[in-house]
Amino acid sequence: MLDRREFVKLVGAGGAVLALTECGVGNARPAAVPALPPFSVPLRIPPVARPDRQDATTDYYRVRMAETQAEVYPGLQTKVLTYNGQFPAATIVAKRGRRAVVTQYNGTSRPTAVHLHGAHLPRKDDGHPMDLVEAGQERVYEYPNTQPGATLWYHDHAHHTEAEQVYRGLAGLYVLDDEAEHDLGLPDGEYDVPLMLRDAQFDPAGQLVFVLAGFAGRQTLLVNGRPQPYFEVAARKYRFRLLNCSNDRTFRLRLSDNRPFQLIGSDSGLLPAPVTVTDFDLSPGERVEAVVDFAPYEIGAQVTLTNDLAEVESAKSVMRFDIARTAADHSRVPPTLRPLPDLGEATVERHILMRVNLGATISSLLDDKVYDPNRIDQRVKLGTTEIWTITNTDVQAGIPHNMHLHLEQFQVLDRDGKPVTGHETGLKDTVLVPAGGNVRIKVRFTDHPGLFVYHCHMLDHSALGMMGQMEIT
């Protein structure tokens, strides 16, 4: 936990309320970053990981976690933590119904734990924050891939260090390809593009600066590990898989000309039907799939993806799309995508409170408690459907939170008593809870007994204790 004296040093006199309002619990005096105008570097698409071997049912991968260097800013080498030397990590593309077995070797100096975020997995493969892979050791994770197709991601989850280790690079996409989607006609191949969004703070030498709860200093935006890049596109439809892998930053994304586009997917895959929007919010850990049609633009036109929640003007532009060529387009967005499953009638209701404690020791709390791996916070009966009401009581400080459940996806029933819209109409595993707000979710616990966690996915908050445990029996 942060000592209050340390906290005051971080935020400076009078800075606490500002930092809290900006969704952290601390601040750091921003270090100078290398001067680089926006849209100076091209977007880089993470490579697709190749299995080391395959058999009739399974793809086998070997991954080494280690500190290495990457060129984030042109001409500068930045120390980062990586999976197999890639920043960000290579995308694992798995097939629904075909197993993936990933052996993770820890070549870093600290313990790690690899969580496949959004996956429906047995306890032993979940990446629980206390199931550590010690330095110099390895762990085998088995992923059955039985759930419907979705954009998942894998990242470090070792408690107390997860915030720093994800920030320094231990994160990658895991796309679960589903044969049932192929007949829908959605954009695919080179027109199916991952976009990993995050923020960072760099010193003058181009090195990452990490301060726990140092949100306000992180004013450099990265997409796929590149600062505010440009991406040359064809005048046709694209499917973008957007992941917010920031520690604490929430984005409100729109195109600079306010042109509408279609949301087709959320955390757990396709929505019931496409939703036409001009903007949407994306909090840490959430994924959204969007189809943007560049056909109405002239060749040579440019349009920017902007963040309307930026605190400073220089951090408002996320990336730029340059319409560079024509291309045939036989893709479509059908009116029906994937119906919501019937989660059954709820027989249990729970109420979860989220807040930050600004006492002598700074901590983040669920139900007024800091995470304790020896404590069971919720006892859940396997096969039961429940409704959880999650309330953010940090009204005065103005601190947003979000909630991520391991193991299961859930339906968001309402937000502050009102029906949800946009990507929240699909199944979710992470949901934003603004200061003073509440959401109700409906979740059914199936298949896998054991001890799983639920927590704020603003990782600086979870590292400060905003996490609980549910035992499913």
Automatic annotation (TrEMBL):
Plastocyanin-like domain residues: 67-180, 220-295, 363-471
Catalytically driven reaction(s): 4 Cu(+) + O2 + 4 H(+) = 4 Cu(2+) + 2 H2O
Presence of the UniProt keyword Cytoplasm in the record: no
NCBIfam families, sorted: TAT_signal_seq
Protein family (similarity comment): Belongs to the multicopper oxidase family.
Species annotation: Actinocrispum wychmicini
Protein name: Multicopper oxidase CueO
GO MF terms, alphabetically ordered: copper ion binding; oxidoreductase activity
Lineage of the organism: Bacteria, Bacillati, Actinomycetota, Actinomycetes, Pseudonocardiales
Keyword Plastid: no
Annotated keywords: Metal-binding, Oxidoreductase
